[in-house]
Amino acid sequence: MTVxxxxxxxxxxxxxxxxCAESRFSIGIVIIGGFLGASVPTLFLTPVLYDLTQRxxxxxxxxRRPGAVEGAAPLGP
Length: 77
Hints:
The protein is mainly alpha-helical. It is about 60% helix and about 0% strand. The chain is rod-shaped and about 75 Å long.
């Protein structure tokens, strides 16, 4: 949401007219392009990389509980 608000706030820089409109246009394009160029790949890469790192290495391994010690006896009766 912060990216969306920043991009929308930069739109008046891009569509402005009058004195110094060329420099405002350039700054607005850099802001919009930079935020979209960084945010869109992050929205897709973060879940994919998380899924790849959390997936079990092979189907033959039993799923382990977090914090379990290899070869330790189970707790309880």
